[in-house]
Amino acid sequence: MNLEELQKIVYEAGIVGAGGAGFPTHRKFSESVEQIVVNAAECEPLMMVDHHLLECHLQELIDTLNLLCDVMDAKEAIIGIKGKNMHLLDSRIVASLKRTRIKIKEIPDIYPAGDEVVLTYETTGKIIPEGAIPVMVGVMVINVETVYNIYKAVNKAEPVTEKYITIGGDVPEDITVVAPVGMKIIDLLKAVGYGNLKDKEVINGGPMMGKLVNLETDVVTKTTKGLLVFPKTHGIIQRIKMPVNIALKRSSAACCGCTMCSDLCPRYLLGYNLQVHKTVRAAGHGEVSDTEAFLQNSLCCGCGVCSVIACQQNILPSKVSMEIKASLGKHGLRRQNNIKPEHVRPERASRLVSSNKLIDRLGIRRYVKDKVEKVDTVFNPNTVYIELSQHVGKPASATVRPGDRVSKGQVVAAVDYNDLGTCMHASIDGTVQEVTDRFVVIGK
Question: What is the DSSP secondary structure assignment for residue 225, as one 8-state letter?
Answer without folding.
Answer: -
